[in-house]
Amino acid sequence: MANIPLDWRYQKASEHTSTFQFTTADLPDSVTRSPDIPSQFSHQAKQTMSALGSLNLFSDSVTMNGIHKIKPFPRNNLSHTPPNVAPRIPIVSNSCPPHSSSLSFLAPVEAILFDIDGTLCDSDPIHYHAFREMLQEIGFNGGAPITEEFFIQRISGKHNEQLCEVLLPDWDFPRAMKFMYNKEAFFRRLAAENLQPMNGLNKLCKWIEDRGLKRAAVTNAPKPNAELLLSMLCLEDYFKTLVLAEECDRVKPFPDPYLKALVTLGVSNKHTFVFEDSVSGIKAGVGAGMPVVGLATRNPEELLLEAGAIFVIKDFDDPKLWSALEELEK
After folding, report:
1. pTM of the full predicted structure?
2. Which of 29, 64, 113, 137 is found 20 to 30 A from 48 (Cα to Cα)?
3. Residue 153 near residue 278, CB atoms below 8 Å
């Protein structure tokens, strides 16, 4: 099987996502809801789980030839969101302004949370390759291969049940999920030949371990994918806590997976931050009341900043990251 070029790059693309509200009301006392939390997160961290805005991720039509307007599709684990809920209040902070490269307000840091795909490893080119081949086989988009831009806008970072709505709205749910399972199996075969760790990952893992910080991997990926990637990166023992979105009530971009990680580790969102590479993942981390460092692995930097990333790095060797970590220790 031919190797996938690892220098594959996305074109600049826009993301069509809606906003939503979230809460840390169900967190234990160790996860703060106190008034002294930085104002960037204080209001949103005190909302209730039921106060959830409508998540109309799939309201826009796809402009590519041969793809009709996306319409609602039945699903299993994704919770129904109540209508008529107030829109999200913008995140504003004086102590930690948006797009600041400082993490000093988190001191002393207790934990760091990581997404897996596109964060620990550059796996999106492999997902793109698998989707492109399999969708072409079933005649999606009139049999024309999907573009990198379409992959960014409609596929990257989404859970498979959401992708059933995006890609296969006319299929019944079991048939659509069978397609997704087959795609994931194809992805795992490709990953076994092509996967590489993110630059600087080993250095960062050692920095975390030397300081005795807690950590967790938090992913929308299916369990077999997550376990395979961690094993191939030799991190299955490093991340003793693995949070699977499919085992939560709601997947990213809802905050549930990151809220579960905080509870499992017994840490406060006032002293924890997140690494994420996708819009949905960044929204989930911010929704759980934490700053998120974005990785511009494939998605454009401006897209990640618009989603709420506090700052964006190229990879874990980026001097911007290490300056922030050094400042955190002062």
Report:
1. 0.69
2. 113
3. no
